[in-house]
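Need a sequence for this fold. Nothing fancy.
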C-alpha cells in the first residue's frame, strides 16, 4: 500500500527548518574539509565537510521514523535499499558551501522501486523550498507553480558533468551547439530546481549519482518537462548505487530531444 505522501510531506516540512538553520549557521564558520575519490574519474577528488555527514545523519534518523521500513541511500552512508527508499544529498554543491559561495542545495527524494514519488529540495541561502508529489504538480514555498517561461531564441542552458577533462570539455562543446553561454553553478540539484521552476530553459547532466538526480527528476516531470536519459535509467536493485553513472537531459520535449540526440 502506498504511504500517505501528503502526510509525509508535512512531516518532512517540519524537519527541514532545523536542517536549514544548521546549514546557514555552518555556512559562515570555518570548516573541516576532507577529500574522497570522486565519481568515475579516480584521479579527481570530491570535497566533503563535517556538515555533510552531520546533516545526512539527522535526515537518516528523522526520515526513517517518518516512513518505517523504508530504505536509505545517501551520499555519505552505505546504501540500504528496500521497496521505498529515501535518496538524500545533504549538501549538493559542497565545494561552494566549503568556500562560502551561497549556491548549494539539500535534496530529498522518496522512490518506490525505480520511480520517484516525492521530492523536496531546499535552497537555504535563498529561503526557497521546492517540493512535488507524484501527480500533484510542483510547489514553491507551499504554493503551486505554473510554468511561465518558454524557451527563447537565446537559450539559457546549464550543464553538470562528472569525469575527466575530456568528458567535461566534450559536454561543453555539445551544449555550445545550442547556447553561446552555457552555465554551471556547481550544484546539479540547484540546476534542476531552477529548470523545474522555469528560470532556466534546460540542463544537461552527465555522469551523475542517484542522489544528484533523485529529487529533480520528479520536480521536472511535475513541472511538465521531459526527462530524457542518455544512459541507462536507474535500477536500484541492480545498480552500484555509489557509482556516478546516470546521464540525462531536462528540458521541454522538443529541446530535450534535440539535446539528447547530440550527447
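Here you go.
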Amino acid at each position: 500500500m502506498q504511504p500517505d505522501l501528503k502526510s509525509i510531506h508535512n512531516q518532512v516540512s517540519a524537519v527541514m527548518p532545523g536542517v536549514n538553520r544548521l546549514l546557514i549557521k555552518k555556512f559562515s564558520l570555518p570548516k573541516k574539509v576532507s577529500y574522497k575519490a570522486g565519481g568515475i574519474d579516480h584521479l579527481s577528488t570530491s570535497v566533503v565537510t563535517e556538515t555533510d555527514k552531520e546533516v545526512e545523519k539527522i535526515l537518516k534518523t528523522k526520515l526513517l521514523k517518518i516512513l518505517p521500513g523504508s530504505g536509505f541511500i545517501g551520499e555519505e552512508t552505505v546504501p540500504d535499499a528496500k521497496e521505498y527508499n529515501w535518496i538524500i544529498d545533504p549538501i549538493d554543491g559542497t565545494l561552494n558551501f566549503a568556500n562560502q559561495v551561497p549556491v548549494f542545495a539539500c535534496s530529498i527524494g522518496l522512490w518506490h522501486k525505480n520511480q520517484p514519488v516525492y521530492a523536496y529540495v531546499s535552497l537555504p541561502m535563498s529561503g526557497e523550498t521546492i517540493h512535488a508529489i507524484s501527480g500533484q504538480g510542483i510547489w514553491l514555498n507551499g504554493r503551486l507553480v505554473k510554468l511561465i517561461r518558454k524557451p527563447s531564441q537565446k537559450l539559457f542552458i546549464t550543464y553538470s558533468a562528472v569525469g575527466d577533462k575530456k568528458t567535461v570539455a566534450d559536454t561543453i562543446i555539445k551544449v555550445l551547439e545550442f547556447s553561446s553561454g552555457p552555465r554551471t553553478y556547481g550544484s546539479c540539484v540547484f540546476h534542476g530546481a531552477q529548470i523545474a521552476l522555469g528560470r532556466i530553459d534546460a540542463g544537461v547532466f552527465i555522469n551523475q549519482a542517484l542522489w544528484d538526480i533523485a529529487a529533480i527528476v520528479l520536480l521536472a516531470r511535475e513541472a511538465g518537462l521531459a526527462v530524457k536519459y542518455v544512459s541507462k535509467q536507474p535500477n536500484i536493485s541492480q545498480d552500484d548505487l555509489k557509482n556516478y553513472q546516470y546521464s540525462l537531459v531536462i528540458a521541454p520535449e522538443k529541446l530535450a530531444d534535440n539535446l539528447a540526440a547530440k550527447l
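For context: The first helix runs from residue 5 to 27.
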